[in-house]
Write a structure and sequence with these properties.
This protein is α/β, with parallel strands linked by helices. It has helices at residues 2-18, 23-28, 34-49, 63-67, 85-95, 133-143, 160-168, 182-191, 203-213, 220-235, and strands spanning 55-59, 77-82, 103-106, 119-125, 144-155, 192-199, 245-252. It is built from ten helices and seven strands. Strands 3-2-1-4-5-7-6 form a seven-stranded mixed β-sheet. The protein is globular and about 50 Å long.
Length: 259
């Protein structure tokens, strides 16, 4: 396991040091997530403000810009980690123009270099699905204080339009990343008592069409799809795993649930 984890981490590092080609992927989806990004930022800010003067860890180095920076919080500590220096450098560059000044550290998320129960908050965006999930979850669980906050936004694999676009844009991702399915969400619940906030179902085809026809991502078509998605998530929660993204908010269980 140790050798395979090391090899996986090195593949991820090498790919990110080279740089992913995500322009086509981002262009296709540029209208699908506009309204949800605003909702996600507001929800993340509210959750983070519930933990004042926190010690915070981001696994990754860009979620703090949309999660922590706009929230008005003043964390006691904000550390951002990444396995690739290129990604850290992008975070460092972003921090030149922001209120918060994170401490950026080169680190493998499979082996976090922090004591047990050290952080009040551990968060990230589109990062857990790059990792050997259970190993990463054990590390996050280990470094979180009892009652601490887990907050991650991750892609889901069951959305048919999202899956189709991923198939035709392989250069936009690493060889090891795997968007989550229901089993992955169940695994997270072994370690954390979670709320899942699903994002983008009808917003995916509507957003793709909107991006082809319109310039402004905030338009009647995307607003209608957003409202429909929100209503469906309330009325039919079982449909949640077929959305394109999920924001996971959780608290560590006292002991992980046995399978």
């Amino acid at each position: 396991m140790a050798k395979s984890l090391y090899a996986r981490a090195e593949r991820e590092k090498a790919t990110y040091e080279t740089g992913l080609r995500r322009q086509t992927y981002n262009r296709i989806f540029r209208h699908t997530h506009h309204l949800y990004r605003m909702k996600r930022s507001e929800l993340a800010g509210r959750l983070l403000r519930s933990v004042p003067h926190a010690t915070m860890l981001e696994v990754g180095c860009d979620a703090w810009v949309s999660f922590a920076e706009p929230s008005g919080i003043e964390p006691e500590t904000l550390i951002c980690t990444n396995i690739a220096q290129r990604e850290l450098d992008m975070g460092i560059a972003a921090a030149r123009d922001t209120r918060l000044r994170p401490d950026f550290r080169l680190m493998d998320a499979h082996k976090l270099e922090f004591p047990d129960q050290h952080f009040d908050v551990v968060f990230g965006m589109s990062i857990l699905h790059h990792l050997e999930l259970e190993v990463a979850l054990r590390e996050v669980w280990r470094v979180l204080k009892p009652g601490g906050l887990l907050l991650f936004a991750e892609p889901l694999d069951n959305n048919p339009v999202g899956r189709l676009v991923r198939r035709f844009t392989p250069q936009a991702r690493t060889s090891d990343e795997r968007p989550f399915r229901s089993g992955d969400l169940a695994l997270i619940e072994k370690y954390f008592d979670c709320d899942f906030h699903y994002e983008q179902l009808l917003s995916v085809p509507a957003g793709v069409v909107s991006g082809l026809l319109l310039t402004n991502p905030d338009n009647p078509l995307t607003r209608l799809a957003f409202r429909a998605d929100e209503k469906l998530a309330q009325l039919l929660p079982a449909v949640g795993p077929y959305y394109r993204f999920v924001l996971i908010a959780g608290r560590p269980r006292q002991t992980p649930v046995c399978s």
